[in-house]
């Protein structure tokens, strides 16, 4: 491995003295790079950019002894960590470069065997990028509406001079037809030769992109791309980057050796930049980004920037954290942010991408403290996201399963037949046991109802407890799963204790109102302050999925919608009982207005489908609280008003500057550009995939169906029966329908929940997840309410 000093590359005979010489040389080179004299600054629109793209490189690969160039970058540059997620759960090298080309999610065709990624080869001189037809076919299959060649087309249209090195860079700078728009060369194996070639390229090009190498996990080597005859596709250029056959051995090398290749190339790039600055005074923006994963297990990747910021008045990339409007989280980036950053750094007009880019330019978001603190932060982000990844599916599986068990207990365990068997059991099985008369039976019944109420409250407290647990760094524990479980149990105990204090449990809606209030307040406060608790939480947003980093994700929306509706019902139910329906409707409307604005406001909730669902649910609840009879016209009017509110939020966001828009405004632009139907297709396809894609979705669907067609119908029959039906023994022979008199908003809020969660299911892309998650918190609270009401009835009849 060779390192470069300010005077030029060290020759092979000097490598024995490389520790001291390399450190001094790199220090001088980087000092010159950071200086950036204002006298040499380029005018807006005349910026220069150098990009090194790699694959599989993480911050844990960097250390002072083995990677001094990378170490100096992390000490003085602006650093962040990047999610490489593009189309599939893990990204191949081709996927990352295609995302750079399109500025949107894109990927290669799936490899023949699970977990395999195809090797990349350089194009022949003047020829198209190898495999470009496959890339176009993959884009058509994926339905993400990615436009390959967008970056290359923007460079050609604006006349930007560019140079590319290596097969990945060729993909990034190809036009829509697959023709490289830059001066292209393969990456030489000798870093000295690379340095010399870069010196020439930087003197003539405003954009230089280098394929810096690949790091692969053991057993995850790249596979050759095959021709139509089944033979491995050869590299068309002699002396090019590793051929497909050579690339197939990358994963067989030790990780340190693979990282060493990247280190040597980065050192060559930095030395060439420093020499070009000394020669011409150029001050380029330098980006080093890892665009893909090293295997089938996704991880957060390395990202670092140096030099001028990418916008007017933006601070320089040094001694700071990186951020972007697409994530709004310090230190966190997406692979789709790299192309907009290049365009902005070159000073191209915002319309250069023709509306194809979905990310935002990378910028400085604060100094982040010392270099050690910044590195610790980005490593911690990776550790947190990796620790939670294996816990999400088991957590939801247990949550839905416990809900099913609780529903079964209500349906079967509390029926008259089950109770008769319980009463007869002591007589059959024990002699000399405790009393089995009416008093003992009554005590057991009271205890069972009290236990049911406690179980319902505790189960409903799990979601908010899981969010609050994220305030403690459980992922740093030796056994993160156990640490998280312990924190959730503590949170459940605290929330349940508050909800079940005597003052609240004597009121049927008391425990429900307390749990709903705590959940609503926690989610609202978290969203308003940047969604830190949701980030990498088991019921939050997952950076490795790259779906949402701030605002209301689908899980947060489902919990917020269910709990805010239940809270509103609990608050105004006493008013409705006293006949003050107008005041009750006004309060429900006020709560609904605040919830809808928080959910849909650009930059805060930034939710597209949620406002329609929330507004419709609250509007119906307000009408029913006011005593207004629902008609089809009124329901249709409510739905149309909800759609209008979403449209207003989206248009308001679209009117903001392009760099400040959220996905609401970008959706409007996509619709104006004619891309509405692909978005609808993708969301519909994702909805169906989620609905039928895995066992967890089937379990969620079963839970929702059990509630809709089992528990609800049985309780409705029991409410209409004169003696309470199979549950009459619980109410002392009275009709269970009298709960509608004692708790008049119970039925209306169930209808409002069904409408809100149903609309959320239809307009979002998470399938059954939204109603299933909403039911997971609403069902146990409704069961706890019924148990509280029955206990109150029994205390009055004794």
Number of helices: 27
- Average pLDDT, all residues: 81
Share of helix, binned? 40-55%
Number of strands: 14
Tell me, what's the shape?
elongated
How many domains make up the 3D coordinates?
2
Biggest β-sheet description = 10 strands, mixed
Q: State the secondary-structure class.
A: alpha/beta
SS strand fraction: 5-15%
**Over the alpha carbons, how many angstroms does the gyration radius reach?**
31 Å
Distance between the first and last residues' Cα: 87 Å
Task: Walk me through this protein's architecture.
The chain is α/β, with parallel strands linked by helices and 798 residues long. The chain starts with a strand and ends with a helix. The relative contact order is 0.09. Residues 1-45, 227-231, 235-246 and 427-435 have low confidence and may be disordered.
Descriptors for this entry?
elongated; 10-stranded mixed sheet; 798 residues; Alkaline Phosphatase, subunit A; two-stranded antiparallel ribbon; 2 domains; 27 helices
């Amino acid at each position: 491995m060779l390192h470069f000093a300010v005077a030029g590359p060290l020759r092979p005979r000097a490598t024995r003295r490389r520790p001291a010489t390399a450190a001094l040389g790199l220090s001088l080179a980087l000092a010159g790079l950071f200086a950036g004299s204002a006298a040499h600054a380029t005018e807006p629109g005349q910026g220069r950019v150098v990009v090194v793209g790699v694959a599989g490189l993480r911050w844990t690969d960097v250390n002072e002894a083995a990677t001094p160039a990378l170490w100096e970058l992390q000490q003085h540059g602006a650093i962040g960590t990047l999610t490489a997620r593009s189309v599939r759960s893990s990204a191949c090298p081709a996927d990352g470069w295609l995302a750079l080309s399109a500025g949107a999610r894109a990927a290669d065709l799936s490899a023949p065997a699970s977990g395999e990624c195809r090797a990349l080869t350089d194009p022949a001189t003047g020829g198209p990028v190898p495999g470009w037809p496959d890339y176009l076919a993959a884009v058509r299959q994926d339905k993400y509406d990615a436009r390959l060649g967008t970056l290359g087309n923007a460079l050609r249209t604006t006349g930007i001079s560019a140079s590319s090195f290596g097969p990945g860079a060729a993909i990034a700078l190809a036009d829509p037809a697959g023709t490289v728009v830059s001066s292209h060369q393969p990456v030489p194996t000798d870093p000295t030769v690379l340095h010399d070639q870069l010196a020439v390229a930087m003197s003539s090009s405003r954009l230089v992109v280098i394929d810096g190498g690949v790091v692969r996990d053991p057993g995850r080597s790249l596979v050759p791309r095959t021709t139509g005859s089944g033979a491995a596709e050869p590299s068309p250029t002699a002396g090019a980057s590793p051929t497909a056959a050579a690339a197939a051995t990358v994963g067989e090398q030790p990780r340190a050796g693979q990282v060493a290749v990247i280190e040597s190339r980065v050192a060559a790039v930095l030395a060439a930049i420093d020499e070009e600055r000394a020669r011409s005074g150029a001050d380029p923006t330098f980006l080093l980004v890892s665009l893909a994963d090293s295997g089938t297990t996704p991880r957060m990747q390395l990202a670092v920037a140096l030099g001028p910021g990418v916008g007017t008045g933006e601070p320089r990339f040094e001694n700071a954290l990186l951020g972007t409007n697409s994530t709004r989280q310090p230190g966190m980036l997406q692979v789709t942010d790299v192309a907009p950053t290049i365009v902005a750094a070159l000073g191209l007009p915002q319309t250069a991408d023709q509306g194809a880019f979905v990310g935002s330019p990378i910028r400085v978001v604060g100094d982040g403290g010392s270099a050690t603190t910044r590195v610790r932060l980005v490593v911690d982000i990776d550790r947190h996201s990796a620790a939670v990844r294996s816990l999400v599916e088991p957590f939801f599986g247990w949550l839905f399963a416990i809900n099913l068990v609780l529903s079964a207990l209500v349906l079967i365990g509390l029926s008259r037949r089950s109770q008769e068997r319980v009463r007869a059991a002591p007589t059959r099985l024990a002699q000399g046991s405790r009393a089995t008369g009416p008093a003992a039976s009554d005590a057991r019944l009271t205890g069972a109802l009290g236990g049911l109420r406690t179980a319902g409250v505790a189960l409903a407290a799990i979601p908010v407890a899981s969010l609050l647990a994220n305030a403690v760094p459980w992922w740093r524990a030796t056994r993160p799963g156990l640490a998280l479980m312990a924190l959730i149990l503590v949170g459940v105990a605290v929330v349940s204790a508050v909800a079940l204090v005597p003052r609240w449990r004597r009121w049927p809606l008391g425990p429900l109102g307390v749990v709903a209030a705590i959940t609503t307040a926690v989610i609202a406060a978290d969203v308003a302050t940047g969604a830190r608790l949701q980030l990498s939480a088991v019921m939050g947003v997952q950076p490795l999925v790259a779906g949402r980093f701030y605002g209301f994700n689908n899980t947060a929306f489902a919990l917020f919608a269910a709990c805010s509706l239940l809270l509103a019902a609990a608050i105004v139910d006493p008013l409705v009982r006293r006949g003050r329906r107008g005041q009750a409707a006004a309060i429900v409307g006020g709560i609904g207005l605040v919830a809808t604005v928080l959910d849909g406001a650009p930059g805060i909730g930034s939710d597209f489908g949620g406002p329609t669902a929330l507004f419709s649910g609250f509007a119906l609840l307000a009408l029913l609280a006011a005593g207004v009879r629902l008609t089809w016209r009124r329901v249709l009017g409510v739905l149309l008003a909800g759609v209008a509110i979403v449209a207003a939020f989206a248009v308001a966001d679209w009117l903001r500057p392009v760099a400040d828009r959220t996905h609401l405004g970008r959706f409007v632009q996509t619709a104006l550009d004619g891309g509405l139907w692909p978005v609808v297709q993708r969301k519909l396809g994702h909805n169906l995939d989620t609905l039928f894609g895995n066992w967890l979705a089937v379990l969620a669907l079963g839970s929702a169906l059990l509630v809709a067609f089992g528990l609800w119908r049985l309780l409705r029959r029991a409410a209409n029966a004169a003696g309470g039906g199979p549950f009459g023994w619980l109410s002392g022979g009275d009709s269970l329908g009298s709960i509608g008199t004692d708790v008049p908003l119970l039925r209306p809020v169930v209808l409002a929940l069904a409408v809100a969660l149903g609309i959320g299911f239809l307009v979002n892309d998470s399938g059954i997840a939204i109603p299933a998650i909403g039911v997971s918190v609403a069902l146990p609270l409704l069961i706890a309410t019924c148990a509280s009401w029955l206990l109150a009835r029994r205390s009055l009849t004794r």
